[in-house]
Amino acid sequence: MLLKLVRNALGNVIVFVDWVSRPKSIQRSPTEQIRVQSAFDGLSLYQFRACPFCVKTRRAIHALGVDVELRDINKEIKHREELQEGGGRVKVPCLRIENNNEVTWMYESSEIIEHLQQRANA
Ligand SMILES: N[C@@H](CCC(=O)N[C@@H](CS)C(=O)NCC(=O)O)C(=O)O
After folding, report:
1. Ligand 1 centroid – CA 28 distance (Å)
2. pLDDT, tens only, 70-97
3. Among the residues of the chain, which ranges form H helices?
4. Which atom of ligand 1 is nearest to 109's Cα?
5. How far, in Å, are 42, 46, 72, 119 from residue 83 at the CA level?
6. The model scores a pTM over 0.85
7. What are the domain boundaries of the chain?
8. What is the CATH topology of the domain spanning 2-121?
9. Ligand 1 test: best mutation among 15, 74, 92, 105, most atoms within 8 Å of CB?
10. Cα–Cα distance between 64 and 113 in angstroms, integer?
């Protein structure tokens, strides 16, 4: 109980620090933005607000100047269940990648960020 409170408080501090120190997003021409954004079709990020590894991943998404659908596993029980059933465990962040009806699940924030950067630079 106490541990949960401390973890929550710490998570909120991280969210706040992230908010006041957000890096600038990459700026692109409208055409280039549409092209880059299309490389993110089929992606969704399972996460929750005060998770430090999720903050790190959302921060990287913001810096890349793209949108990735965020699925909060604490707000929507169906997202938690999808993650458990599809990915095999309830651990966040987890990137769901859908490509030609094939779905893969990527855990580990560093791996996810690298994957997103590669898509943005392809
Ligand atoms: N090394 C992982 C750590 C992720 C992590 O520990 N996430 C926590 C939430 S902040 C979690 O989901 N823990 C549940 C678990 O590990 O089963 C990463 O960088 O993504």
Report:
1. 33
2. 999 999 999 999 999 999 999 999 999 9
3. 2-20, 30-38, 52-64, 77-82, 109-121
4. 20
5. 15, 7, 11, 23
6. yes
7. 2-121
8. Glutaredoxin (3.40.30)
9. 92
10. 10
